[in-house]
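subagent[fold] <- orchestrator: predict structure for attached chain, return tokens only, no commentary.
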Amino acid sequence: MELSLEIGPLKPELADLVVAFIAFGIVYAFMAGVVLPRIARVLREREGAIEGGQQRAEETREEAERAHAEYQRLLSEARHEAARLRQESAEQGAALLAELRGEGQRQREEMLSAARAQIDADRALAEASLNQEVDALATRLAGKIVGESLEEFARGRS
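subagent[fold] -> orchestrator:
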């Protein structure tokens, strides 16, 4: 077995070498001219989509943070307004209660004054009526004791 180095993969024929270079050039030209630009364009589009998606996600996150901050601000304002309204209502309720108590006190005093005046008037009438009856009884009793009617004398004294 002898190895012949004249023909083989390490020593190709010139025609095979030329055909291989031409085929390589055609494949390289096709790849460089058609396939690689398409791949590069697709990669750029994907990169742009990813960056655009990240940018949109960042914008959406910032918008969500702004909306959340606005929500928190409005919620805080609403809580302060509710607290203010509760305070106002409590103050108005206390004022109304004090006013009603004052009005009730005033009406009670008026009723007590009217009742006292009525009692005083009734007492005066009762005293006057009682005095007349006592005078009449005293006159009759004195007339019985004296044996004469003293009613004319009592009328003249009145």
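orchestrator: received. Logging for downstream: The chain has a mean pLDDT of 87. The first helix runs from residue 14 to 146.
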